[in-house]
Each structure stands twice: as structure tokens, then as C-alpha cells.
Design brief:
Two copies of one chain form a homodimer.
Chain A (H helix, E strand, L loop, with lengths): L1 E10 L3 H11 L6 E5 L4 E8 L2 E8 L5 H9 L2 E9 L2 H10 L10 E2 L5 E5 L9 E5 L4
Chain lengths: ~140, ~140
């Protein structure tokens, strides 16, 4: 059902400053950056092994990520797993009583499907599920 | 320098209850559990792809993990990268001004070497470095 860790998302207050640690100091590679308007974040994608670090910088004060940063400070925000079949996974999780933030997958502009599991059901961890296009 | 994400550590208050989510609901495999006396935690190792989830349950009230759980509740605790040469990595990080919790590697009972980077230098993330025996 779950194939691997797709990414670990980290909320930061300044993307350039954060890259000085993850890229300049640790020696990881910056693959690319993009603005995700639907979530009001700038994202830097930093591959590591078979996964990625995603650095999230809120671009407004209202988004979930912005409120997280204000309340808890910078740090790990969510953990994303890649799955083969997100609809089957969500159906199963619902059947066994796991609380979902998204009961049906959200479809991103790139065709990627994703959904979040509520941290209440996952030891305080915000867990994202990804089904990649063509995967 | 950095090869991959070795594990993502999650602090939990009850190991059996946490396995009901990560193993029973998500369908991940429980590889094994062990008690790590030096850190006063019971650990459940849950492989996923090329990495692992490590569920940490404090076994006293004094350890760093126990204080984290009391202060912040369950959730992601640290992120561990596997490196080829931990001494070279720590030397480099120190040279470029990264604040280290362990300036020299700690050697575990299994010969594994590890060290922590201070969250102040890593966007609030407690980062662990591992050099595996024979790696």
C-alpha cells in the first residue's frame, strides 16, 4: 500500500536562509523552487536519497502553514508517503476508523492526487498521502 | 556526504497504541522493537521504502524524549541522515558555523556512530547523523 517516504516538509521563515543550512552546509542539492498558490507557500525541493526535503515558506499570514509557523516556530510540518492507489488507501483508513482531513483525494494542478490524515489519528503527525501521476 | 534519510523519529506516549496506526491501519511492517537504555526509550522500527519510522516511547520522566513529550505532545522528534564519514561531516559543519550538540560522534553499543546537530542551526529540526558500521 505504502511505497516510500516521498518527502518530509519543514516550515521555515526564510527560504534563502534555510538553504544555507540544507544545501550550503549539509551539501544537499537544490532541485528547484516553486510557488504553490493554492497553499500560499514558496517551496524548495531538496532531494536526499530516495526522498526529498521540502522547505515551505508561507507567503501570506492566513494559510495553515503560516499559522503553524506563528504558533510553533520553524520545524518539521508533515510527513508524506507515496501510495499506489490513494482512493483504496483512504477507503481502507476510513473503514478502520482513522480520522481523515481529506476523505477524497485533492487533485493538484499537475494531476498529482493527495490527501491528509488528521494528526489526532497519527501520534500528532500530519501525514500526507501522494499518488503520483503515472505511478 | 549525505546518502539518504535513515529514519524519521516520532515520540509517542504508548507504543502498542501507536502501532495500531502505523502498522495495523497504514499496513507498514513492524521490523522489531528494542529498549535503548542509554536514552531511556522503547523503540519500534517500522521500515518504509529505503527509510524507517522509529517510534520512541520514553521509559522514564527525565530523558530528553520524555521532556519533549511532556512539553510538546506526541509528534515528529528528529530526522536522521546516513553519512559516509561522520567525522569529516562534523568537521565540515563546524567549520561553516553549524551549531552541533555532539562535536564528536557518540558510539552506540552496536558500533554505530551518531551525532546531533542543534535545531537552532537547522530551522528548528533536530537533525541526527548516522555512520553505519561497515557502511
Amino acid at each position: 500500500m505504502i511505497k516510500k517516504v516521498n518527502h518530509i516538509a519543514i516550515v521555515v521563515s526564510d527560504l534563502d536562509e534555510s538553504l544555507r543550512f540544507w544545501v550550503d552546509a549539509l551539501g544537499l542539492e537544490l532541485a528547484h523552487t516553486e510557488h504553490v498558490a493554492s497553499q500560499a507557500v514558496d517551496v524548495a525541493f531538496v532531494p536526499v536519497g530516495d526522498s526529498k526535503i521540502e522547505l515551505l515558506k508561507p507567503t501570506d499570514n492566513e494559510s495553515g502553514v503560516a499559522r503553524y509557523l506563528e504558533k510553533r516556530g520553524a520545524g518539521m510540518h508533515h510527513l508524506c508517503f507515496e501510495v499506489d492507489d490513494i482512493v483504496a488507501t483512504l477507503t481502507h483508513l476510513k473503514e478502520v476508523g482513522v480520522q481523515l482531513i481529506n476523505e477524497a483525494p485533492v487533485v493538484g494542478s499537475d494531476g498529482r492526487k493527495f490527501a491528509f490524515i488528521h494528526p489526532k489519528s497519527a501520534n500528532g503527525v500530519l501525514v500526507e498521502l501522494y499518488e503520483l501521476t503515472g505511478a
